[in-house]
Design goal:
Helices cover about 25% and strands about 15% of the residues. It is extended, with a radius of gyration of 45 Å.
Length: about 475
């Protein structure tokens, strides 16, 4: 995946990014916050915020660090910060006054004495050590999972994050309940030669760390912008008239999709206009049971016991039937709304105000041009096409070619064209007289055998009279 907003550099990587993510969705550094206060002038430099937000592992983990130095840092700079018995390397993700708003959101105090500090700008040696330790992470994940399986612990190692100096490793794991990993920590410490920290996360936090593409075609919300994971249950799907299908309602984390809560408030507001306690309506045919509510068309769908057909009723009709049932009256029919007839929107006629051309006219012209080209190709194949057979012409005896008539005599006059066939002449059987022919002095009499098909008749080529 490459960025569309910044120029692509050599080797297939975007020119202004640290990774191959998308700038528009925050793939270069996850959970990014737009600094809309960056270009505003600072009235008092002394009261400016001295705290920065630093991200680790492409934004999967972020923390606040105080900048005691006089050196200003910009977004995207690699800096060395205080770590556990050493230093860690991170990327500046946020600076300025917007950091105070983020700290207030996460309930972090600016004057907290336990807040760690920024050490310096990352040197080339720091970056080399950091890359070497980051290369150990995939192998550490595989090895740590094998060790946990050998100890028969009901847990899953999701990710291993190494500190930049290689003195500490954080193991993120998923477990349904409490896990006694005291023995596991000892094995990890002796295996990887680091200080071990175990941190339990949920399935949604794991999906946010791993990332991916959702069923909507976009990057996962938990890996781009979603920080607070609220509880999601099947009630949200029922309010939105969604089928309770666990496969379609579950995300990549195996839990219900977080986006089920996005439109829930809109549905709840729209459902306030629908009447309550209308799950069953009494009519003459029996009890009609409510199937679903359509908030877009303001319809309520019911079914009768004698069939599986669903009947859409308007809200006014449901209220009327409900009032009649309270009076002990059962109406004869439900009187459903006719939704089968679809109103076809009439397209406005095209008016060429600025010399534009309708798309329909272009399609028609292209079709006509293609049809003409196909007709021209058919005419060019094989020269001139033969004339179609005439059934009336084949049935008459005098309709044969001139070289087969008159006892095999042929006309050898140069330059004369062959006379076209005359349907009246063929039907009369040759009773009409022919025009004067210098090669034929005597008039041929009527021969009844001549009307038969000549090539196979031996009497056709004879000049004898009957």
């Amino acid at each position: 995946m490459s960025c569309t907003s910044c120029s692509t550099a050599s080797k297939g990587k975007p020119g202004g990014c640290k990774s191959n993510g998308g700038c528009s969705t925050g793939g270069c550094n996850r959970m990014n916050t737009h600094d809309w206060l960056r270009n505003l002038p600072i009235s008092d430099v002394a009261s400016a915020c001295k705290v920065m937000e630093v991200s680790f592992s492409q934004g999967t983990r972020k923390d606040f660090y105080r900048n005691p130095t006089l050196q200003p840092f910009e977004k995207g700079d690699l800096i060395a910060v205080e770590g556990v018995s050493g230093f860690d390397l991170g990327e500046v993700s946020l600076t300025g006054e917007i950091v105070r708003l983020q700290m207030k959101k996460r309930n972090v105090k600016e004057d907290n004495p336990d807040m760690k500090k920024v050490l310096r700008t990352a040197t080339d040696r720091d970056i080399d050590i950091w890359k070497q330790n980051k290369a150990r992470e995939p192998e550490a994940v595989i090895r740590s999972r094998a060790i946990a399986r050998q100890l028969k612990l009901d847990m899953k190692i999701s990710q291993v994050e190494m500190q930049a100096d290689g003195r500490k490793a954080t193991f993120f794991y998923i477990a349904d309940g409490r896990v006694d990993f005291r023995e596991l920590i000892k094995v990890y410490a002796s295996e990887f030669k680091v200080k071990v920290e175990m941190r339990q996360i949920g399935a949604r936090q794991e999906a946010g760390k791993v990332g991916g593409i959702g069923s909507c075609g976009r990057e996962l919300c938990c890996s781009t912008w979603l920080t607070d994971f609220s509880s999601v249950n099947t009630t949200a799907a029922r309010y939105q008239n969604l089928s309770i299908n666990q496969t379609k309602l579950s995300g990549q984390c195996g839990r219900l999709k977080c986006c089920l809560n996005y439109e829930l408030d809109t549905y709840l507001d729209a459902l306030q206009h629908f009447p309550d306690n209308c799950d069953v309506l009494q009519v003459a045919k029996g009890n009609a049971f409510l199937v679903k509510k359509d908030i877009f068309k303001n319809l309520m769908w019911y079914t009768l016991p004698d069939s599986n057909k669903q009947y859409p009723l308007s809200i006014e009709r449901v209220n009327k039937i409900k009032s009649l049932n309270q009076q002990g009256i059962r109406p004869e029919e439900l009187e459903p709304v006719d939704v089968s007839s679809k109103t076809v929107e009439k397209e406005p006629e095209f008016v060429e105000l600025v010399g534009q051309i309708s798309l329909k006219s272009l399609d028609k012209a292209a079709a006509d041009k293609k049809r003409k080209q196909q007709g021209g190709q058919q005419r060019q194949q094989g020269g001139q096409q033969q004339r179609p057979n005439n059934p009336n012409r084949n049935q008459q005896g005098g309709n044969q070619q001139r070289n087969q008539q008159g006892g095999g005599q042929q006309r050898q006059q140069g330059g004369q064209q062959q006379r076209p066939s005359n349907p009246n002449r063929n039907q009369q059987g040759g009773n009409q007289q022919r025009p004067n022919n210098p090669n034929r002095n005597q008039q041929r009499p009527n021969n009844p055998n001549r009307n038969q098909q000549g090539p196979n008749n031996p009497n056709q080529g004879s000049d004898k009279k009957d």
